[in-house]
């Protein structure tokens, strides 16, 4: 018995040695280059586009199944002046073989260098990512009733995933619309993620240049888990844009595969709106009566939203010397049901008005032409359901100083009411109410 077991172990060990030796030796004797034309042909047939791979094509099988290639080019369909839709300078992936049998994907390295994607819409409105239309299949004589979809098993068809080094280096993406003569470009795309796993948070680092403006994202995402259909994915990331804007998002993505939503805190650090606007478009000049207005802004809020509703709570907005606390919710976007509560401590509106000039005064005195007026569509207001409150401690408008402003606004079926309206002005008080009816084409105040 012991002898049989001994010989069994020897035979099994010998088989393992032979398999390992074969995995090491086979790539040395197989000329993978001769399969390159076949690979190019198969991809071209499947995509309907030209496809080519450079001569630097390598394959290894043990201990990691590795594939590396260079100069990948996927062409555009006919009708586009640009040659390719996708180009990759080099690509390398290394995966462990044996764990794949148990659906355990272990990737040592996944690196894409200088990928370039060019998305184009020509003057006829045709997009280069659209597949050629296939001939219509014959309609079956008997139609089967659609079966209800089972979403209980939504998730990843794997047991585990680990990636030692995932990187995209020096990538770029270009959008060209010849019908409107527009062009947008994202360049210097760099993404790194190390020790990627489904069971623990993943550290991400992303940077890019969007239309010559820097953008970066740093932070953690996950654990993702194996069930993407339901559940939450925690995240804590910081976003820096255009040297002026710094935003932090901390919370979770909810049910990303079934009913995507977010539940997170948003914090935007203090920045200058005036400088941000100038950086977005140097041709735009922000003109205010006070040249120091719009020099400082900061925002904090909690956001909970999905495709059907959105709610902002614990909102706090600082604008120059003004502070606004707020909450807002909206549901049923086709027939908006909006609730809000705004509390502003103080604001001098005159600071933010454009400086008056002789041209502006002339425009104010000239009566508008009746012929140039367009008919106002009040349909959105008729659909609106609203319940909101506005409080302002100190308000300056047209040099008038107003205190303790309180407005309650309600809207339903085209009837908008302000009741009550209260304020204090020059050591006196005023209150009242008004009603606006937009159920007809001509609004009526009551």
Account of the protein in words:
With 446 residues, this protein is mainly beta. Among the domains are: 228-335, no CATH class; 377-446. It has helices spanning 2-29, 36-47, 273-280, 358-365, 379-383; strands spanning 51-52, 58-60, 64-75, 84-96, 104-121, 160-177, 182-197, 202-210, 213-221, 232-241, 245-254, 261-271, 297-306, 309-319, 322-331, 337-348, 385-397, 400-412, 415-425, 428-437, 444-445. It has a 21-stranded mixed sheet that branches. A hairpin with a 6-residue loop joins strand 20 (428-437) and strand 21. The protein is elongated. Residues 1-26 have low confidence and may be disordered.
Question: SSE string, helix = H, strand = E?
Answer: HHEEEEEEEEEEEEHEEEEHHEEEEE
The total of helices stands at 5
What is the straight-line distance between the termini? 104 Å
* SS class: mainly beta
| Helix content range | 10-25%
Unreliably modeled segments = 1-26
Beta-strand level of the residues, as a percent range? over 45%
Number of strands: 21
> Radius of gyration from the CA trace?
32 Å
Shape verdict: elongated
User: Taking all residues together, what is the mean pLDDT?
Assistant: 79
């Amino acid at each position: 018995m012991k002898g049989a077991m001994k010989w069994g172990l020897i035979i099994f060990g010998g088989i393992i040695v032979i398999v390992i030796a074969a995995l090491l030796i086979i790539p040395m004797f197989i000329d993978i280059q001769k399969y390159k034309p076949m690979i190019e042909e198969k991809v071209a047939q499947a995509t309907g586009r030209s496809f080519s791979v450079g001569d630097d094509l390598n394959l290894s099988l043990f201990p990691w199944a590795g594939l590396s290639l260079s100069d990948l080019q996927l062409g555009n369909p006919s009708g586009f002046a640009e040659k390719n839709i996708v180009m990759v300078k080099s690509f390398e992936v290394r995966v462990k073989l044996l764990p794949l049998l148990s659906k355990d994907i272990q990737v040592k390295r996944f690196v894409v260098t200088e990928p370039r994607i060019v998305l184009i819409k020509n003057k006829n409105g045709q997009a280069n990512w659209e597949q050629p239309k296939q001939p219509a299949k014959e309609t079956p004589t008997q139609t089967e009733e659609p079966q209800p979809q089972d979403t209980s098993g939504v998730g990843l068809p794997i047991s585990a995933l680990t990636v030692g080094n995932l990187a995209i280096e020096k990538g770029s993406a270009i959008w060209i619309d010849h019908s409107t003569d527009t062009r947008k470009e994202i360049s210097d795309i760099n993404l790194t993620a190390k020790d990627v796993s489904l069971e623990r948070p993943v550290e991400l680092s992303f940077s890019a240049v969007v239309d010559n403006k820097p953008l970066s994202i740093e932070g953690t995402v996950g654990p993702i888990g194996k069930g993407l259909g339901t559940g939450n994915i925690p995240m804590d990331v910081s976003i820096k844009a255009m040297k002026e804007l710094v935003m932090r998002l901390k919370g979770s993505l909810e049910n990303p595969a079934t009913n995507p939503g977010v539940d997170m805190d948003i914090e935007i650090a203090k920045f200058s709106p005036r400088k941000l606007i100038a950086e977005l478009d140097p041709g735009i000049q922000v003109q205010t009566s006070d040249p120091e207005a719009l020099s400082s802004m900061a925002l904090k809020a909690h956001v909970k939203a999905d495709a059907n509703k959105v709610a902002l709570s614990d909102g706090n907005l600082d604008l120059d010397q003004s502070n606004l606390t707020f909450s807002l919710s909206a549901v049923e976007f086709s027939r908006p049901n909006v609730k809000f509560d705004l509390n502003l401590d103080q604001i001098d509106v005159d600071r933010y008005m454009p400086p008056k000039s002789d041209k502006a005064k002339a425009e104010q005195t000239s009566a508008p032409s009746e012929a140039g007026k367009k008919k106002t569509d009040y349909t959105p207001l008729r659909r609106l359901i609203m319940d909101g409150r506005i409080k302002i401690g100190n308000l300056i408008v047209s040099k008038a100083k107003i205190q303790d402003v309180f407005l309650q606004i309600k809207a339903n079926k085209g009837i908008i009411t302000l009741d009550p309206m209260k304020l204090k002005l020059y050591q006196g008080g005023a209150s009242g109410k008004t009603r606006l009816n937009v159920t007809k084409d001509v609004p009526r105040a009551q």
